[in-house]
Amino acid sequence: MSGGHGHGGGHAGGRHRWRLAVAFALVGGFFGVELVAGVLSQSLALLSDAGHMAADVVTLGAALVATRIATRPDSTGRRTFGSYRAEVFASGLAVLLMIGVAVYIGVEAVSRIGTEAEVASGTMLVVGTIGLVINVICIFLLRGGAGESLNVKGAYLEVIADTLGSVGVIAAALLVSATGSAVWDTVIALAIAVFVLVRAVMLGREVLAVLGQHAPAGIEPTEMLAALENVDGVSGVHDLHVWTLTSGMDVATAHLVTEAGDPEQVLAAARAVLHDQFAIAHATLQVETTRDRQCLGVNW
């Protein structure tokens, strides 16, 4: 028996897809401008922020794709879980990209020690200001959907983080202009690189937790087990598994043992507990009676 099989309904991310599309176009377009400006001005701060923005482009693109494939029917009949994990794989790509950018900036900064690079502070200031304006626009765009969709919320938080990078570029431009020393460009570039690296590690841990099918953050399997055991008619629970399929979509399976009562009522009550107390999007539950001599599941 199974519960919570509804895959249909309105997709929250889909309703705000236009917000993601506009943000993706703005950030993607500016990424190219910032990358070229960073190379021409020899500004590490601009290059490091461009690398961070490249990760934003990947994240926004993944969110945009995820809203499309989340409701796309599987034509092969083999993707029994759908294609929801595409977002997770794209996030893993963003992690690798962010780590690569951080390492490159670190190596480049070390190589500049003892030398005095010519940094065009005026270009830095103009590009940094434009980047700040674009990020603020994207923040207001995505804020409207961040409260409904975790997918949109992830993109929203990425843009907020990149806004700090734009502020760093502006600060570096002003310091270089005021002191005439390019060392400030290197110092702030390293600060941005460390920030990007820390965020990459944090995001990487989340990706590995999903791929490793760990219990979702904020859910304690022991608490879920106790809640199911307290359902009327349930005398025992075993083979409980809970994991994250993709952002905002937690799933669970369990075997419920009952001594008496209507199995359908037990199933409905257990499903309600998982949905209301633990926000489980999909649950597969099997009801067994004490008359069963052994577990009705296959060996594993």
Automatic annotation (TrEMBL):
Alphabetized UniProt keyword annotations: Ion transport, Membrane, Transmembrane, Transmembrane helix, Transport
Organism domain of life: Bacteria
Record flagged with keyword Transport: yes
Subcellular location(s) of the protein: Membrane
Limits of the Cation efflux protein cytoplasmic domain: 220-288
Bilayer disposition of the protein: Multi-pass membrane protein
Membrane-crossing segments per the record: 20-44, 50-67, 88-107, 119-142, 154-176, 182-202
Stored InterPro entries: Cation_efflux, Cation_efflux_CTD, Cation_efflux_CTD_sf, Cation_efflux_TM, Cation_efflux_TMD_sf, CDF/SLC30A
Residue ranges of every copy of the Cation efflux protein transmembrane domain listed in the record: 21-211
Family per record: Belongs to the cation diffusion facilitator (CDF) transporter (TC 2.A.4) family. SLC30A subfamily.
PANTHER family for the chain: CATION EFFLUX PROTEIN/ ZINC TRANSPORTER, RE54080P-RELATED
Full protein name: Cation diffusion facilitator family transporter
